[in-house]
Amino acid sequence: MGEFEFAPTVLVSVREFDPNNDREGVEAVERICEVGPNGKLSLFTDLHGDPICRVRNSPTFLMLIAEIGQETVGMIRGCIKTVTCGKKLHRQGKSNTETEPKQVPIYTKLAYILGLRVSPHHRRMGIGFKLVQSMEEWFRDNGAEYAYMATEKDNVASVKLFTDKCGYSKFRTPCILANPVFAHHVRISNKVTIIELSPNDAELLYRSKLATTEFFPRDVDSVLGNRLSLGTFLAVPRVGSYQPDTWSGSARFLLDPPPSWAILSVWNCKDVFTLEVKGVSRVKKTLAKTTRVLDRVFPWLRLPSVPNFFEPFGFLFLYGLGGEGPQAQQMLRALCGFAHNLAKDRGCEVVATEVSSQEPLRCAIPHWKMLSCEEDLWCIKRLGEDYSDGSLGDWTKSPPGFSIFVDPREV
């Protein structure tokens, strides 16, 4: 996409990733960038030989690489979709007296940056900045109005690059909640019935209840119908009119919902990439293995065993979490238990999700603190000023809502 001169003898070119010729160079940079500090735990990602696996399910995506001569020294990935950025009141009917106004979503075209890597031997040369600039140029050419990225709040180099040099501002601080999958199934409350929804029923319920949630994708039907989506599950009181064998669809459910209910969908990340924890002492590995052995031998004790994180493992991601009513937390807790058992049956070691730090249902999501991140950081930038968001104004200056919809295609 262009060439940039950083010093009299160094010329860096940025161009689109070629899967036929660039895979080996990209994998080499990925490996060297994931070497952790001595004596500290490190989380390694195996992309299964597909450098664009984390964006290829998005509606529009691109990967760029930076080169010095024939050597790959950096890369960046980006994707674009249309999401909810706010809501407004809309009155249905021909007159103001026919119906009560309801909230409808305000959509915007949003770009997402992920997977920015620069070889440690070529840092402090402006390569990361140029990769971001080149990706933003592609975003603008494709009509994106905002761009955002996610990073750990303690990643000082990444935060400084985006906020100090690239013009991004700190926007949202969601939390990543992860729970291990034990060697035993977890018990699910006998007061709750879980119903698996068809993609069409799930879409109708989501558009009716969560469409005004920040970051809700307008093409949610594509997400729900993706081969990686393992299903959408609805929890309702066991004593009630809604049961799996008599389920008559979301349309009827929305007309007469139970006092409390909850919903979530499950995404299979295991078939996209796997993770591995390195840098753990032999003593800790032995202790973790002991808990697994005890859990398998005495499953009725339901011990909180530590899975084998020290070899490549997969995980399931929970998205579209929501619910209503005084027992919504109990319903969601049952759904999380159901997802745990689904993960165990599919050979996954972790169940994870990401929610707003203000999410009302957050306390119902089982998680281990040592596996979770209490404060992820999302930074955002407005890419142009020649358009209007109407009643919303500038999204980058809007206060956070209670909930966000985290698209599993960007995990």
TrEMBL record:
Coiled coil: none annotated. It comes from the Eukaryota. InterPro entries: Acyl_CoA_acyltransferase (IPR016181), GNAT_dom (IPR000182), Plant_NAT (IPR052810). Pfam families: Acetyltransf_1. Keywords: Acyltransferase, Transferase. PROSITE patterns: GNAT. Residues 12-193 form the N-acetyltransferase domain. GO terms for molecular function: acyltransferase activity, transferring groups other than amino-acyl groups. Belongs to the acetyltransferase family. This is N-acetyltransferase domain-containing protein. It comes from Glycine max. The lineage of its organism: Eukaryota, Viridiplantae, Streptophyta, Embryophyta, Tracheophyta.
